[in-house]
Amino acid sequence: MSTLAFDGRVREVPGVAGYRVAAHAELGSTNSAALAAAGEGDPGNLWIVAGRQTSGRGRRARPWVSEPGNLYASLLTIDPVPPARIGQFPLVAALALADAVDTMTGSYGLIRLKWPNDLLVDGAKISGILLEATMLADGRRAVVCGFGLNLSHHPELPDYKAANLAGLGFPVGPERAFEALAASVAQHMARWREAPFSQTLDDWRRRAVGIGAPIRVRLEDRELNGIFSGLDPDGRLVLETGDTRQTIAAGDVFFDGAALGTSAPGQPAG
Q1: What is the CATH number of the domain that holds 83?
Q2: Based on the structure, what is the number of domains in the chain?
Q3: I want to staple 148 with a disulfide (CB 3.0 to 4.6 A). Which of 58, 128, 216, 269 is the partner?
């Protein structure tokens, strides 16, 4: 039976114990549908997949282009880890997606990671990851991680370079992409819960771009310039500005072309 039947029915994910999936031909937003399922009492470990989104969104409510042919999938979890560790989730998700892309393309090491959770190929962004959380009536926390992966097309936007796997020479369909993602996420979620987070950080750093390079960090109320000196033990960005060091939990990071391994000066990273 097909992993993604696109009929809205909830099924077990083949080969991934403890996870279920409901695939829809079209949804407004897979994240919104996953949050709605949590509000209706779903126990979690539920994937919501859409062939197309009509109201997809990225960080800070930016629109996310969601035409057919790409992968749009959101995972609902309930209290995946203690609240103090939720901030580590973006790095776990990015590493899981990077490993999944290696698997689905058979090209290991293709992906580089830009803090906290952007996937790059030759400096071009190929994905988006959006985490959202809400408290349920019984006091539990529902956390949804949405993945958008450019398989067959990508947006042409003025503020950053984007690409898709087919255009890079790796034709992959949504079903194959979801199978690889579901297996990889299950593996990384288990390690996140059971092993020291330092293992995830070490793997993330091996794929990282820009460590040691000058960066610009755009926060909600200001921008900061400094050196990306590394990550703290919880995966927050450490920025050196003059004689001071500060940790940043969330923000938009921009590198120059050299830091990304590209020749485009001033190219923002995402």
Answers
A1: 3.30.930.10
A2: 2
A3: 128
Quickly count: other Cβ atoms within 10 Å of residue 268's Cβ: 18
pTM (two decimals): 0.90
Q: Are residues 168 and 229 in the same domain?
A: no
Angular region, 143: left φ>0, alpha ψ -120 to 50, beta rest:
beta
CATH number, domain containing residue 242: 2.30.30.100
Task: Give burial (CB, 10 Å; 0-12/13-18/19+) of 43.
Answer: exposed
- What percentage of the chain's residues is helix, strand, coil (to nearest 5)? 25, 30, 40
Q: 181 lies in which domain range?
A: 7-207
Tell me the per-residue pLDDT of 168-216, one tens digit each, with 9 for 90 and over: 999 999 999 999 999 999 999 999 999 999 999 999 999 999 999 999 9
CA dist., res. 70 & res. 11, Å (int): 21
- Token pair, residue 31, equals 């994240």
- What span, in angstroms and rounded, lies between the C-alpha atoms of 107 and 192? 25
Helix ranges restricted to H, 195-237 = 197-207
d(CA 111, CA 96): 11
